[in-house]
């Protein structure tokens, strides 16, 4: 009996001890787990993959990863500098090479302004088109890769621009863009419902770029029949798979730049993208950021396909607002930053300064001096550039920073006049009718060339196509090809495409009259008195070039000269955008419904109320109420039986 | 007797064990609020340059909320107009909250989800209730669940019982209360903090009837909320008073602070604000003194640590290309091809209703006049 009691007590004692010990152990492990130190390595076994020191010390050699298997350091080493493309041990596993190049081209403009163009290109040897499933993304951003696969996109071109490119003062840009947002997409021929896919694609892109691209719908989308041929490789050019839309009202601000920068492999932390600070970039005359995705030749014989993602950012800094009136530019003055290193993931990182107008150094002086020179044929002209190679550590000098300075000595020098230029304006008066005039200038002295004009006018400007006239030098100029698709109210816009031959040294004017429609009152924007925008016209043309163009499109060229593929040597392809138009539509007074309701209700209340009272009121004569003394006297009199007062 | 000794020993043992639990504060606080994620919906409803202060209000709350830990993917920011890159802004890409341009609340890393004309009453209510079209991207959705704490901040011009959106439409307090009830029925929030900075803001929370709602407003019914200070270089008023002092209060909060809601109710007394801020806590189940500011303005993140190896899936090998003929670029402006282009074969659509009706009418009239016997001549 006693032994059993002892035994049970001892068992209880033992259980208490063990539970206590287990609890203490759990406490310890919980407290260590609750202080995570994610920045330290998980494995303490001697795997050292320090991120920053490897980048600083050995910039262009592959980082030595001392740990054997790639599986364990999956999430950690993905952030450290991976081995260069070309080394076989890449995390994609198969032989899919990725290559990233970055470039900055600086071109001083004749008016004292300066034009800076950033170009970032990621080339990936994979093929989204054959239904391949891609699962590992390294330099190519995953969000865009998934968009391409899911929506079967063959080419995607999107641009966000603030400001208008002034061709006559600044020359031709490397990659033109219209004000606002522009999106044009070629779908693959496996897509069955192009319109539905287009709508979903615009919604997804509006989320990626923080822009209101979801306003793109059938009322501002067109299907050009001859313009916007694909810029990538391929044989199929059935225009059923092409869609083009612009949103001229779209604003560009830091919220569009932020996701754009996040698509770059190095983000905005290293390389040329550190220069992109929004306070300076948006304080400019022209700012345009674009993303272009297309399939290109993967090798010299063009037997395999690579996908190219190009991100470009063009900015023109004004002499007076950013330059404070002094004609002296430097990277620090333009961007408020200097460069400290190149992007470690880039295979080439260069800065080009256009010195064609300054062969002997008589107009401006460039510092630090560089022995590297490069000549490139761009926009039909052979230009000379001073090159700074940021992958070479000696560029940064002892201070580890790099700042280019351009100082002008005199303001002479003339500018090459651009050969093609276009303008557009609205003529007429009043809020009923008007006239759209588009002017195209051919400034070549003796050559004429064809241009393809694409006009997309919203449905609420009802074009009178019978009043369409095309005149050059006062005479009628009949276009060799016209494609017109009339609008349907609230369903689709007007589309006008014309192939016009511009005679040399002339102005060609295209006029068409229109009538303004009255919208339904819910269709007006909250600020209707601002006006309604009409998107820019697109003028695509093959312009004769001054020097012979290189028709071998697979050769290695600087990025800014290799965007538009060239087929013949004597001409090159450019696209010019006109200004967008702002038209006022007849706007009703939106306070009138409230006023009408108040007025009507007042009239009805007064009128009906008076009538009702007159018809139904019954009049009675009433004795006035006697005073208190008289009432008491009346009471006494009634008691006495005497007649009342 | 020995059993009694052992029993008492066990009791003291248990007492010691329990005291360990009591001293462990982490366990206690972790389970008091019961939420596992945080969301924020920040809305500015005013358009036009002179309403700069409303955008600055919203951006300062956005900035505080991001600083305290809520990531961009959990914030739905709606700005009805663009002030930063407005052509009237003398310093583009900036929105200041203090005069002399001390603090740029716009920053360099901002993601606006709904901007410009997209900020409408319909979109706001759809975001709250989750009834969005299927193609809406994730960044524009409020993907909250029943363990989410949501912060909703509205600012703009308002009146007794309504808030004006973009100078063209209004949301009433009844609609707002019904939207919150929908959220409650669909279990879209655990606790909700509603802050409004408009004139007569207290009228907007009068009609709430769903549980677990706490509301703050910058002024009572019949009072106007005033703006704080103008900046002479920019030319407009930069912030509203209530949000200005709210921002000052929030700048002192860091992710580990223990300040509670009672301190938030004291922000901007009548001497500073000129209007009387109000609050409503009767629908809230917990005591406001035990609710931390960081329960709504900060963020809880679930962190899972593992020391196991993760097996990545095998990369899918691409299909081997059989054909080897070279590709080529397309001619950008093939003039001869364009001139000789055949007109597009348009898809044949069945005749429209109008045409069908017209032909039916013609045939009917024909047979009425001439009789059915002519049918044999046709068929």
Average the pLDDT over all residues of chain B and give the rounded result.
86
- Rg estimate of chain B, integer Å: 32 Å
How far apart the termini of chain B lie comes to 119 Å
Helical content class of chain A: 10-25%
Which sheet architecture does the biggest sheet of chain B show?
A: 7 strands, mixed
Quaternary class: heterodimer
- Low-pLDDT stretches of chain B are 23-31
Mean pLDDT of chain A: 83
SSE ordering of chain B: HHEHEEHEEEEHEEHHHEHHHH
Largest two-chain interface? A-B, 95 and 75 residues
Category from helices, strands and their pairing of chain A: alpha+beta
Helix content of chain B: 25-40%
Large-scale geometry of chain B: extended
Pfam family, one (chain A): Gpi16
InterPro entries (chain A): PIG-T
Signal peptide (chain A): 1-26
Protein name (chain A): Phosphatidylinositol glycan anchor biosynthesis, class T
Observed structural traits:
A: 645 residues, alpha+beta, Immunoglobulin-like, 3 domains, eleven-stranded mixed β-sheet, 20% helix, extended, B: 379 residues, seven-stranded mixed β-sheet, Phosphatidylinositol glycan anchor biosynthesis, class T (chain A), PIG-T (chain A), signal (chain A)
Short structural description:
By secondary structure, chain A is of the alpha+beta class. Chain A contains 11 helices and 26 strands.
Structural account:
The complex is a heterodimer of chains A (645) and B (379). Chain A is an alpha+beta fold. Chain A contains eleven helices and 26 strands. Chain A has an eleven-stranded mixed sheet, covered by helices on one side. In chain A, strands 15-16-22-18-19 form a five-stranded antiparallel sheet, with no helix packed on it. Chain A has a five-stranded antiparallel sheet with strand order 20-21-17-24-25, with no helix packed on it. In chain B, the strands form two sheets. Chain B has a seven-stranded mixed sheet with strand order 3-2-1-4-8-9-10. In chain B, strands 5-6-7 form a three-stranded antiparallel sheet. Chain B contains twelve helices and ten strands. The chains are: A alpha+beta (645), B alpha/beta (379). Chains A and B meet through α1, α6, α7, α8 and β24 of A and α1, β3 and α10 of B. Chain A: Keywords: Signal. Chain A: It holds the Pfam family Gpi16. Chain A: It comes from Neogobius melanostomus. Chain A: This is Phosphatidylinositol glycan anchor biosynthesis, class T.
